[in-house]
Design a protein that fits this description.
Number of strands: 24
Structural class: alpha+beta
Shape: globular
Bound molecules: flavin mononucleotide, manganese (II) ion
Helix content: 10-25%
CATH superfamily of the largest domain: Electron Transport, Fmn-binding Protein, Chain A
Length: 459
């Protein structure tokens, strides 16, 4: 069976039944759908939620796919305990895609002058969002100079019929390609696929260079070649087993108001002038399942967590070969905070790790470096190290006026701290113990008395 969204849903239902919730009651796509997921979050639960009936559309909606680490591990086909390292190995495998002349996504083809995307579920996520957004659309584009395929998730603000507002961040490779076309006054062909196996959808969050074929990276992460088909109205290939494909052009030199929109920071991004996508065709599977990502919540942040951890790990390892593990916790939106454990071979290495962590990814604002007796995936252990191994005047590294991200509401401009901008003061805490002097031993019960005992024998 080909690995697609349906394959994955079945896998979650079979292997993690308590985290697969089916909602039979019809829900309103405006706020009510996300409200259900939000209510689970309030109870500390992050299940995958499958909405059978969504008002205004005949398509069911699945959301919150990426909100749990165990689901990400299942999606990448690896163990949760070795998630990042196994992910890195698969990211390097690169299995070339294969072309097919037909595929399920071609079961329904809609194009022509009267194209109207009103039939899709149009979901409004957060209170002050400018309107409904498609949040899981993976933008497929081709670098005109190398012909290499690339992908990225770019949210689409529904503006009616065949028109969407779309924000391509300045830093993105997609924007780099759009600039190449715009400099010649030309629109950029784009296809968005919605609904596929997580390993396919999340390949869009890998940080591989422009010019590297991302469909091969996708194959490596999926563990099988990706089946591709030719688009109807643009010269692009898209996954044949996607649920829905939207084809169109990003217009040259056109910018229209887009947002406010709930961002990864869990704040609203302000209204801005963004690109416009004009849709030329929609194709979809019979009984298509629509995939939504709950923006400004765990689903959104966790979608890029493992891929970012992989980049951060690889970069720090260049300077600190004894790095053990890395975690970009949800409390830091899986972007702004990094916990890094190292085996400290000599004094001063904690500071080298601090500096490398702060430069490993532009979005890292705070890094905490700990010894390898601390499990970085356990925030309480990390904070315990900070509480008991740190004296701030010696442990802190502070780097003012570094770029982080303009969406961070505390970011400032180079002219004045009072003005909003994209600069940030980065800081790191070296919470490792000194090694040239004795440090007190931590207190605990001997391991053989608890680690592997079966508590039921005592009840
Ligand atoms: C749910 C989700 C939504 C995203 N929305 C946007 C967006 O609207 N604009 C943007 O620039 N990046 C967005 N991103 C980040 C990009 O998808 C990501 O940086 C990607 O790697 C860019 O790909 P590219 O560099 O190949 O163009 C989003 C990420 C996720 C997980
Ligand atoms: Mn990409």
């Amino acid at each position: 069976m080909t690995k697609d969204l349906r394959y994955f849903l079945k896998e979650v239902e079979d292997k993690q039944p308590n985290d697969f919730v089916r909602i039979k009651k019809e829900v309103d796509p405006k706020f009510e759908l996300c409200g259900v997921i939000r209510k689970f979050q309030d109870d500390g639960r992050y299940p995958l939620v499958y909405f059978e009936k969504v008002r205004g559309s005949k398509f069911p909606v699945v959301s919150n796919l990426f909100a749990s680490k165990s689901r990400l591990a299942l999606g990448f086909g690896v163990n949760e305990s070795t998630l990042v390292k196994d992910y890195m190995a698969n990211e390097d495998k690169k299995i070339p895609s294969k072309m097919s002349s037909d595929g399920p996504v071609k079961e329904n083809i809609i194009k022509g002058d009267n194209l109207d995307l009103g039939f899709l579920p149009h979901i409004t996520h957060n209170e002050k969002d400018a309107g409904p957004y498609i949040t899981s659309g993976v933008s497929v584009f081709k670098d005109p100079d190398t012909g290499a395929y690339d992908t990225g998730i770019f949210r689409l603000m529904y503006k009616g019929k065949n028109k969407f507002g779309v924000l391509y961040g300045d830093y993105s490779k997609a924007m780099h390609v759009i600039r190449k076309f715009e400099s010649k006054g030309k629109p950029t062909e784009m296809a968005f696929f919605i609904g596929h196996h997580p390993a396919s959808t999340l390949t869009s969050q890998t940080k591989v260079p422009l010019g590297m074929d991302e469909f091969s990276v996708m194959g490596g992460l999926l563990g099988e070649p990706v089946d591709l088909v030719q688009c109807e109205t643009v010269d692009l290939h898209v996954p044949a087993f996607a649920e829905i494909v939207i084809e169109g052009h990003v217009l040259a030199e056109v910018r229209e108001p887009e947002a406010p929109f709930g961002e990864y920071t869990w704040y609203y991004g302000l209204e801005r002038m963004s690109h416009v996508l004009e849709v030329t065709a929609v194709t979809h599977r019979n009984n298509a399942i629509y995939h939504d990502i709950f923006s400004a919540h765990a689903d959104h942040n966790m979608a890029a967590k493992v891929q970012r951890e992989a980049v951060v790990y690889k970069r720090i390892k260049l300077a600190v070969p004894s790095i053990k593990d890395v975690e970009l916790p949800l409390s830091g939106t899986c972007r702004h905070i990094a916990y890094v454990s190292i085996k400290k071979d000599y004094d001063g290495l904690g500071k080298i790790a601090s500096l490398s962590a702060l430069s490993a990814d532009p979005m890292i604002k705070i890094a905490i470096i700990v010894d390898d007796d601390i499990n970085v995936h356990n925030e309480q252990e990390v904070m315990w190290a900070v509480a008991t191994r740190v004296q701030a005047d010696r442990a802190l590294t502070i780097v003012p006026e570094a770029y982080v991200a303009e969406l961070d509401p505390s970011a400032y401009s180079i002219r004045s701290r009072a003005d909003r901008g994209s600069l940030n003061t980065k800081w790191a805490i070296d919470a490792t113990k000194p090694i040239d002097q004795p440090f007190q031993e931590s207190a605990d019960v001997p391991k053989q008395y608890w680690k592997s005992i079966d508590i039921s024998n005592y009840l």
